[in-house]
Amino acid sequence: MQILLIFALIFALGVAIFAVQNATPVEIGFLMYQGEISLVYVILLSVLAGALIVFLLSIFKQITLYRRIRALDKKNQSLEQELHNLAPKETVPAQSTEAPSQEYHSVEQ
Fold this sequence. Notes:
2 strands; transmembrane helix; membrane; cell membrane; LapA_dom
C-alpha cells in the first residue's frame, strides 16, 4: 500500500513539473465557454477530473462488493443454521473458542 502512495506522489510531482513548464496561454472552447487560459490550469484540471472519475468508480465498486459480502454472510448464516437443525444432536460438535479438554478414561478390568 505504501508503494502505491509513493508512485502516486511521484506521478503528481511529474504532472506538476510538466504543467509549470508549459505555462503558455492557450485558446480553449468548452460548451459555452470560449477564452484564453494558461495551459497549467488545463493540465491540472484534466488530471483532477480524471482522479475524481477514478475515485467515484472505485467507490461504486466498493459499495457493490460490500453488498455482495453482506448477502453471502447472510446466506452462510442461514446455511449454518439449517445444517445445525438437520444434524443429530450427538454428531454436531459444539463450536467453542476454548482449547479442547484433555480427558482420559481408564478402562477397569
